[in-house]
Amino acid sequence: MRNKRLLYIGLGVVFTVFFMTSCKTPSLIEKSVNNSIPKKFSAKQDSTNMAQLNWKEYFSDPHLLALIDTALNRNQELNIMFQEIAIAKFEIGARKGEYLPYLDLKAGSGVEKKARYTPEGASEATTDIEPGREMPEPVPDFQLGAIASWEVDIWRKLRNAKESAVKEYLATQEGKNFLITQLVAEIANSYYELLALDNQLQILNQNIQIQSNALKIVKLQKQASRVTELAVRKFQAEVLNTRSLQYGIKQQIIETENKINYLLGRYPQPIERSTQDIIEILSDSIQAGIPSQLLENRPDIRRAELELAARKLNIKVAKANFYPTLDITAGIGLQAFNPTYLIQTPESMLFNLAGDLVSPLINRRAIKANYYTANAKQIQAVYEYDRTVLNAFMEVKNQLSKVDNLNKSYELKQQEVQALNESIEIANNLFKSARADYMEVLLTQRDALESKFELVETKREQMNAKVNIYQALGGGWN
């Protein structure tokens, strides 16, 4: 009775020490996200948001749609991301398996001989055994059984680790969606750049024709002694300069085509595209919605949010390491020195059942370090989330401003091109009537060419802004 009482007192002291030492956890610095964002991008906007449109509805060019569709199936970077998603999914299964019981089957055989001059060997030698039933020497050993082990998830450490893996898996899904928005935007921008280069090459060809006609006129005037050889050489040099520009444009076309081919995961080949003049493409109105919709539409924001949730769960996992862990092990099986005895139960049957309660007592430095590390990563994730939201808002504001300024700039460029086209005809007529010299004609033609190039560039920037605002609002992945 006295021994039992002492045993209970000893167990009570042990459990008290366990819980006193394990329940003390260090204090952490807490950091929460900044939920205050502007209510509107501008005073005139409503909740209508074009980011909710599917990319097949947002873009109308069938050639562009075919390129995007091919890229979504063959792009290597996207396929690599799919494997990242698969890895994250397998991690969930691994985490889930950790808080379920482990069951192993065991079968084995062996042989053993005890040394004579050992306690066990001497005991067997002096044991009085009936004749015919001596222990075989050496002693065979045959085993067949099952062994189970289970860490009881008292503090939800293992389940929180599994839930953290789920959040990470969902974050990789959002990472894939974000990559899709980038891929769609990059292909669309490259496609419109290709249309712009085609248009500039066409402008060069038209300008070469105009300059060649002017060169013929100057040669005739030189024969009539109305101009000198210098004028002929100047016009000839201008034609050659314009022709040389063609090869620069052609090289840019090749590089842009290959850039698109790379995004499509295929080797260089011509890109099928529209023959429509990029100037004739109409720009649609922009419907940006309200800033709060970015939290739902932008995959990078949702990814940052899920990663933050995973970091919070990791803190709980690290905190649970301060508490005692309960491990239960059990085994049942058959064991005998002769295979024929294995089926003779209960003599050959054996079993065991044990429970271990383990708590960190002295060296807790590593546990504290992991705990502080988890907290630092959680604070880092908070800053990352705030930075992602701020960046998204800035991107939308910049693109909205760019769309507005490009529209105004394009209108003025159109008027400039029209004025310079008219000035070419005026300069040619004045030159024919000897009221203007050849330099005025050359400068007018050069200014007109540059203004046409700038008009095309402005139109390309308009199309890129249309693509970029769609991406900035979170469109393109759904």
Automatic annotation (TrEMBL):
Coiled coil: 396-466
Cellular component terms per the entry's GO annotation: plasma membrane
Pfam families hit by this protein: OEP
Keyword Transmembrane: yes
Main subcellular location: membrane
Keyword vocabulary terms for this entry: Coiled coil, Lipoprotein, Membrane, Palmitate, Transmembrane, Transmembrane beta strand
Superkingdom per UniProt: Bacteria
Membrane topology: Lipid-anchor
GO molecular-function term, one example from the UniProt record: efflux transmembrane transporter activity
Localization of this protein: Cell membrane
Family recorded in the similarity comment: Belongs to the outer membrane factor (OMF) (TC 1.B.17) family.
Protein name: TolC family protein
Origin species: Marivirga arenosa
Native organism taxonomy: Bacteria, Pseudomonadati, Bacteroidota, Cytophagia, Cytophagales
